[in-house]
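The data layer described in this paper is built around a simple, fixed record for each protein. We quote a single record here, exactly as it is kept in our systems:
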Amino acid sequence: MKLSVSWRASAAAAVATATLLTSGSMAGAVSTADVEAAAAPDIPVTNVKAHLTQLQSIATANGGNRAHGRPGYKASLNYVKAKLDAAGYTTTIQQFTSSGRTGYNLIADWPGGDANQVVMAGSHLDSVSSGPGINDNGSGSAAVLETALAVARAGYQPTKHLRFAWWGAEELGLVGSRYYVNNLSAANRAKISGYLNFDMIGSPNPGYFVYDDDPAIEKTFKDYYAGLGVPTEIETEGDGRSDHAPFKSAGVPVGGLFTGASRTKTAAQVAKWGGTSGQSFDRCYHSSCDTTSNINDTALDRNSDAVAYAVWELSE
């Protein structure tokens, strides 16, 4: 689903038109061109899927997985880092040890913005050892990467500072993200005005779940989906089980999106979203079949656009 103008832009343009009609002049009105320039761009799902294809190729070439401490993980990190470096990001690799193996987080800062107000978007880049992890969590990693690249393409200069992150060893218990949070000073933790987490956002039998942790972030995602006419539900299956948890424990406002894992989709949810009742949201969760064929393109497209929408909304 390609949106030429985001829901936010459409709404703002309508306000501008109403101002023009009531005032009889353009004074005080916002032009459609200005609105579109300020709006989050559409994220091409073909670009997101191209990243997934690369992650699949990396897994295939490295024993079928991209797990912590394995060659496939480091190759995945190198792929993401090269894209960010070429786009003008300042990238940092943070190293840690878990289960006797070296792990890595990748942090990317977009130059500019108020360093005392940091908006972060992140995802875990590792898979389990039993499969390539394309939905879990290539989907979130690819959407965050493409959003970061869209920031660079747009030359976006928000009021707040933008930071993107790809975490290692999430599958071993949120190890990478916890290491990052624990190694921040109290002052630097306080500078993070919000952390957005994206873990499994292209499930093949998808639901549309929104984290209910921080009200402002939750409303941002709900507003986006309301603009599409797509109902959402509060995310409960993965509550506390992904990389937002260490941030939340440290007092950072958090939010995010999820399309479901091993839980079964109900008939009521099928009535809302389509799909198959009585079947898991992702039958290939933590399995070898979590490949590029295990992705729902519509869910991936909608959620990738939602990532960008939230990044723009919360950082401007």
